[in-house]
């Protein structure tokens, strides 16, 4: 790799060769990367370095790569581009500011690619046809603000980057990447996944406190931190990324936080997830595509819903940049931020700013239309883009060249006063209170044998994945208890012979409909009951079990999606996490079934069945593996131990 002086590399901005400028969180300099760009088809084709002396690569991973997980998407052909770093240098922020022209960037025209009325119709259909029918807890539906950029598009992107260096704070990556025919520029708050020294980290972020153009007020901040909706939304995202960590980290993920992510216009709440693993970093990327904050959950069906209702591709929106290298000891490294709050500018000067609204059970089309307008305006404001006549979305404020005049400003100077709350004792206490009812199992480091139960040690378990990777977290808990776990998809259940326990797992959908998946799950439950093989059914599996036993299933008027409730479960009171639209009901605490007497844990007022058990089977409507299930690992242990015969 060449080691050109900084000034020479700064001059490459003007040559048209591919380059990337990165200012990463915690670093006081800008990294300058140049080199040839190539196109690859699969993540495994990314030419990752094989030794510490090999140069890094920077991959622009499009959303369409989610196909590598077998998930659906509208394939728009967006290429996966890889910049092979032939030259790398570091420059001070001041040097980069001086090297980039300070000139206003004006947009021409400007409108969303789909109008408000069309978007409202999509939102209404997702709410009624998907969330209302149990297809998932939340879905992110995007639209794209499009405009033209006057002048040279690369110079415009560099000017935007310059403004971000001056105005934005708290970003995970502030970047501009030019591949030759398109340029991406933005300031993303969110790490998707990183790997360093064998440590895998993810960074679920949710909850937004907007303070653009004014000094934030502490009372408002505390109210935001105690808002139940904001707390629940972050918990849902946390669960979804814990599912991914359970797939790539050898002992699952440990939750650290929550923290404040304080940026110039916004403050978010976030957690960090950490775990150790030895997979190739390209496999880590594949197994974590993509963040629930930009797709929805459960992730597999969310991809299906997004493809069905958006009807067009996403380009790079919601996917990742991925910087892949080796550390001095030769170990693989990965740093992959999420591509949000990013402008995508092609060689003709066409600018695209994708934004999404997260649809949940309480959403309305009007509110989500307003949310996308606010997000687009916020991104344009953060990017410092000036609107021209006919612009369809106005920024919250009017940042631009006059937000920080001149060219020799100190990095980080901001036009508005800076008030930071992260170190405030009251704020810290409010953040800590969020963890009071979460599962300690996921919040603390775990010794390998801490939860091992001799009665369960070595017992073989078959877990059926019904399209919800909560099975990854459940599998991890079962293994921590000492059991040997095999996971199979509902499309390939196969024989259950030789297993000590069968677990029909969770998944989206209406269990009352005799579609292919539900038929498979029902046959599995019926055959397992007939064989007298021990069975623990979870969520969807529980609903199917309850139906086979003769209990009626009902659609709840208000779905329990990402909701924590205190319930009484067979002699204990505990808080558990629900992700369900349907529920079994019964008026009695016990009833006789063809497979023996069944005991129920239910709501005495509504008859809602939260759990059931008999001599050889049990079912739970909630998710004991969820971070919302405070004592979930103990519930799993006790239920499983009660089903398995004693060792001879």
CATH class of the largest domain: Alpha Beta
Main sheet makeup? 11 strands, mixed
State the helicity in percent bands.
Answer: 25-40%
For the termini, the CA-CA separation is: 65 Å
Rounded Rg: 26 Å
- The stretches of 5 or more residues where confidence is low (pLDDT under 50) are 1-6, 394-417
Domains, number: 2
- Strand fraction: 25-35%
Number of helices: 15
CATH fold-level name of the largest domain: Anthranilate synthase
- Mean of residue pLDDT? 87
CATH architecture of the largest domain: 4-Layer Sandwich
Overall number of strands? 31
What is the name of the CATH superfamily of the largest domain? Anthranilate synthase
Shape: globular
Structural class: alpha+beta
Overview of the structural elements:
The protein is of the alpha+beta class and 648 residues long. It has two domains: 6-389, Anthranilate synthase (4-Layer Sandwich); 448-643, Class I glutamine amidotransferase (GATase) domain (Rossmann fold). Helix content is 26%, strand content 31%. It contains 15 helices and 31 strands. Strands 1, 2, 6, 7, 8, 9, 10, 16, 19, 20 and 21 form an eleven-stranded mixed sheet that branches. Strand 26 and strand 27 (572-584) form a beta hairpin. The model is unreliable at 1-6 and 394-417 (pLDDT under 50).
Question: Topology of this structure?
Answer:
Layout: H1 6-11, E1 19-24, E2 29-34, E3 37-40, E4 57-61, E5 80-84, E6 87-92, H2 93-99, E7 106-112, H3 116-129, E8 138-149, H4 153-167, E9 173-178, E10 182-188, E11 191-196, E12 199-202, E13 205-210, H5 218-225, H6 228-248, E14 254-262, E15 266-276, H7 281-287, E16 296-297, H8 299-310, E17 320-326, E18 332-337, E19 342-346, E20 350-359, H9 365-383, E21 386-387, H10 425-433, H11 440-443, E22 460-465, H12 470-480, E23 484-489, E24 501-504, H13 516-531, E25 535-538, H14 540-548, E26 553-569, E27 572-584, E28 590-593, E29 596-602, E30 609-613, E31 617-620, H15 632-643
Parallel strand pairs: 7-21, 22-23, 22-24, 25-31
Antiparallel strand pairs: 1-2, 1-9, 2-6, 3-5, 4-5, 4-17, 7-8, 8-16, 8-20, 9-10, 10-19, 11-12, 11-18, 12-15, 13-15, 14-15, 17-18, 19-20, 26-27, 28-29, 29-30, 30-31
Helix pairs in contact: 3-9, 5-10, 6-12, 13-14
Pfam families: Chorismate_bind, GATase
Protein name: anthranilate synthase
Catalytic activity: chorismate + L-glutamine = anthranilate + pyruvate + L-glutamate + H(+)
